[in-house]
Amino acid sequence: GAVVSQHPSWVICKSGTSVKIECRSLDFQATTMFWYRQFPKQSLMLMATSNEGSKATYEQGVEKDKFLINHASLTLSTLTVTSAHPEDSSFYICSARPYLTGQSNSYEQYFGPGTRLTVT
Amino acid sequence: SQQGEEDPQALSIQEGENATMNCSYKTSINNLQWYRQNSGRGLVHLILIRSNEREKHSGRLRVTLDTSKKSSSLLITASRAADTASYFCATGTGGGNKLTFGTGTQLKVEL
User: Fold this and answer.
1) How far is A78 from A50, CA to CA, in rounded Å?
2) Which member of B40, B88, B97 has the closest CB to residue A107?
3) Are B92 and B52 in contact (CB under 8 A)?
4) Which residue in chain A is spatially nearest to B106 when comparing CA positions?
5) How high is the pLDDT of residue A54?
6) Helix (H) or strand (E) holding B74
């Protein structure tokens, strides 16, 4: 249980185009999903917190107009990198926090396999 | 700056030996979690320890938490080549339990 998928797993796009990445919780509902980016040999940096039915909360320094997040349902969040540039090339990882009221493991997050974006 | 700083940055040991990784953090936390990441892959959750717990075990893993020193350690006993990966600590804070990741330790277990 607690599987999170991401699609696509990797994508190469041209500079100036937009790319959409999907994050799905396959066997549980997630009111909260998180988006991270990771540069080679570095740690994960939280970009934004996505709550179902409301606007995402972005971390300081993350451009909300460039990284559009939509959390349309309890099992799906999308990240759209608009007008991508080579410096946006990175590994993007999402995670989902199960909606488990009164459960002792409500702190856990389950991570997707990541999406590698290369902008040429 | 990183909430979590891990040391060592890299560790190479022989199969069968124990591996210990340390994580230090700066602010008050709800919990601390350890994750594993194989090269270019997603994260695998290993263990979660709450701020009111001091030690936790899961199989060959042992995690300690010292909130007075704002530090945690992950011990992998009887390491295997398959344990080769990067290990990250992550501290959970706030009502939404936002995770802040440490810098990571790259573990290599050699045959």
Assistant:
1) 9
2) B97
3) no
4) A41
5) 84
6) strand B71-76
Contact B101 A43 (CB under 8 A): yes
Which residues face B19 on adjacent strands?
A: B76
The string of pLDDT tens digits covering residues A50-109 is 988 888 999 999 999 999 999 888 999 999 999 999 999 999 999 998 876 554 456 778
Residue B60's nearest CA partner among B45, B44, B51, B47 is: B47
Cβ atoms B67, B51 nearer than 8 A: yes
Distance from CA of B15 to the nearest CA of A (A): 24
Number of residues assigned to chain B: 111
Residues of chain B whose C-beta is under 8 A from some C-beta in A?
2, 30-31, 33, 35, 40-45, 48, 50, 88, 92, 96-104
What residues does B72 pair with on adjacent strands? Answer: B23, B65
Residue A109 CA: distances (Å) to CA of B12, B67, B101 = 29, 22, 13
Which residues in A lie closer than 8 A to residue B98 (C-beta atoms)? 34, 46, 49
3-state secondary structure of A54: coil
Q: Whose structure tokens read 């020193």?
A: B69
